[in-house]
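Hmm, what's this shape?
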Amino acid sequence: MARTTRGNLAARMGRWSAAHWKTATFGWLAFVAVAFALGGAVGTTTIDTDKPGPGESGRMDRILDAGFEQPAGELVLVQSRSLTTDDPAFVAAVEDVVARVSGLDAVASVRSPLDPGNAGQVASDGRSALVELDIRGDAGDAVDRIDPVLDAVAAAQDAHPGFFIGEFGDASAVKAVDTAYGDDLGKAGLLSLPITLAILVVAFGALVAAGIPLLLALTAVFATFGLLALPSSLLPVAQPAYAMVLLIGLAVGVDYSIFYLKRERQERAAGRSERAALEAAAATSGRSVFVSGLTVIVAMAGMFLTGNEIFASLGVATILVVAVAVLGSLTVLPALLSRLGDNVDRLRVPLVSRLRRDDGEGRIWGAIVDRVLRRPRLSAALAAALLLALAAPALGLRLATPGPDTYPSSLEVVKTYKQMQEAFPGTALPATVVVKAPDVNASRVQAAIDQLRERALASGRMYEPIAVEVNADATVARITVPIEGEGTDAASVASLAELRETIVPETLGALPGTEAGVTGLTAAWTDQADELKSKLPPVVAFVLVFAFALMLVAFRSLVVAAKAILLNLLSVVAAYGVLVLVFQHGVGRGLLGFSSTAGIDPVVPLLLFVILFGLSMDYHVFILSRIREAFDRGEKMDDAIATGIRSTAGVVTSAAIVMVLVFGVFATLSMLFFKQFGVGLAAAILIDATIVRAVLLPAAMKLLGERNWYLPRWLEWLPRLEAHEPETRPAGEPEPARAA
């Protein structure tokens, strides 16, 4: 006799979609097409990278914006191994570069190192010279006008093969990085798709079943690409946002579909009718997908507390793609399954299909869980010790803002930058001292500027040429100071600190009625990193509190909610430890193909925290839901734990492998940010799906027994997100007629 129970939201959505499969399926396709088309029609507004940032550098940039026209500046390095600037061939090469760039509409002004008064543009050994030029128009749009300049410089290089001629500057560097990001994104897509499909074929043993999760994930990604453009006029899109959509969308879209589809196949293998199996999957795995997706969305919302445009953009991108993936999993997936029925197992793959188990149980994990439950204290102690050992290196985590030295060495701008740094230390990424006064030409201000120059050169951390520019109103002076280091390394930070804490306060800063400070890329990157550090505590608190509340409502247990938070924190901190081992201590550096071990990109730890805290809940919710189902059916706690782990082992393993390999693809890309992000995510998911969920979770639940479900009476008012108990229709009972 079938037992009727009140269905949850996921169950009701699945039931409706199954009954109206055409509406659900074609409605989804129409939604994806319209969203993508709307995004293309509206256009996407991206973040203005030249907008003043936080801290002292932001204040100084606003003073400069008001006092100066600030075009994007470019430097062209002309270098010879043997000739000097006195040689006719060297002179001809420089004059050719000047002539080529001077005739371009995009170039506003050119300063030749051969002109009198430009001695600072010639290196001390005479074998290197810099041609300086400004790009016409607004600096924020200069990247759109830089191509003709790059082509002219490349043509000069071809015309003078005996010289090195290369370009580095505000626009050329951004152009190169943008291109590298785009190439990396394309490579990630090309590699991720076949890897994901191969894993799904192994997981399901049939091409139809394997193709459904991948198609749903891809349509969710494409829909989100379009949706991102709609709010971009209010919240501009950050450069990594599309990579984030592809990375997270492919991972969670496939995972959610696996959870749902595997449960439906398990119920059919247990003898349920097609309709009963689908309803059971909708009410159980569908609910897990809904809770998991909601957890990820809540965690992502924490990024809005940073007050940072980049984080806010990444938060919107991730929230959108997860929401779209959840919607697809709860609507179009049951619609397709209701139509296909057992035909979802069509196009079976020989050998692979025979190895597949429809009951979802994993022999290996089952054996591990049996041993864990026999010795829960020892298992918990060993797992916790291993996690703490992995997490220990995180105590030495250093933040290092990415600069040209961290970009792929294959980029031409990076090659030019490195050679420019050797010939003209600090010139490529100088510090900029700004002074605002009623009259910066006054003798006392000029004397302070002279004193600043003397103190800077005497420090040994700063170099000539120190250039001074005064605006037309003589109210603002801009002093360019080449500093030691690569722009973002420890030497540059130390140079910046000496300028800010000693030299400027004791010279220009000591004048009454003046405002002085330091900006430039090193200063801006340092201020941004400091701001992120200050925002970390409220973001962490927000995510922890709301994730705890969601788990409390989902499982109506204080113990389960607290344990979920603790286990997720262990996974995240262990991933931080792996990051430090790889990207600071250089473990596996040759394999991953990077050279900089200065530290971790400031964006990565915060981004990893919110994403991992959401994603790791997927497995937690899925496994706990099955354990709770078994417990509610009357099984003893030990049996319920074993049943829950065994019945989800195959699903969790398949889903984890998809995530680990998709994230691992990003570790193979050229940009260091992607490498750090991919390694961190892959390590955390691997740790979470093995040590945490297969060992620490069952051991902790075994030790706590029925106290796992403790909820004090004063919290019984909490709303319920009840799981729908799968109907117990006998295998021989005919199923209700399925909608045509």
Observations:
- The mean pLDDT is 83.
